[in-house]
Amino acid sequence: MAKRVTVTGGSGFLGRYVVQRFRDRGDEVFVPLHGDFDLTREADVRRLYAEARPEIVVHLAARVGGIGANKAHPAQFFYETVQMGTSLIHWAERVGVSKFVTIGTTCSYPRDTPVPFHEDDLWNGYPNEVTAPYGIAKRMLLAQGQAYRDEYGFNSIHLLPVNLFGPFDNFDLETSHVIPALVRKCLEAAAAGAPEVVCWGDGTATREFLYVDDCAEAIVLATDRYDGPEPVNIGTGVETPIRDLVAVVAEVCGFHGEIVWDASRPNGQQRRSVDTSRAAAYFGFTARTGFREGLTRTVAWYRDSLYNQSR
Hints:
Strand order of the largest sheet: 2-1-3-4-5-10
Largest sheet: 6 strands, parallel
Helix content: 40-55%
Structural class: alpha/beta
CATH superfamily of the largest domain: NAD(P)-binding Rossmann-like Domain
Order of helices and strands: EHEHEHHEHEEHEEEHEEHEHH
Strand content: 5-15%
CATH architecture of the largest domain: 3-Layer(aba) Sandwich
Number of strands: 12
């Protein structure tokens, strides 16, 4: 039967895919826009629940960005993440929401977590310092959801996606994550005939990348099938060195110049890849979109958007 679903951050990058998947199956989806609801204000959270009357809440809204944005605004990342999440979880339980889905982050993992990251290692140390305020804020929401489950029987689950990419991503060089930033740099360099592209760090760090629509599928599956206190990784299980990533992005974008590494810029966490067995066992999720296939779609979308802007 159709459900009333509220998706915070539903107009954002991941949110638009999650909203579409719920709507495709007939659910009634409400997306609170920031101009109408400031979710860092408790009064607006209470008003949201009174107006939308959701049965399910998927909480995606957050201040997000790459290493540069986290380094520049650690206080904002921490404060807004905590304020939004704690009020939304608290009042969801108070008003009788039947399912609350929190989207966490692999930035919550300790800096020296053994690879692949397993969910049981989440509390075994301090996160990488550059993204620690954001990562710890998300850990707090996990602890809150577990506490509300223990005391009130509240069905709150916590998912930990890896780095996402795909069409409609943020390509602003000041705030974007690594793939959209590289795509933009390589396309602009190729168009200008530039001899080089400068990349942050030394290329030795690793990351795991998941196509955004696959992540949306995982969220809907977990919403339907998972009811438990343990956090669950969402990823592909494939660890990719940044140096290899840059080579593939440059190839797909048609850039044939030199890649220059700026080692004065931070690598972030040195290695990052997750164990995906829990997602497969608990709600049957396995990523389906290969990296090159997803990257090709992403580059094509960005090229089209640039063409449309220039018309």
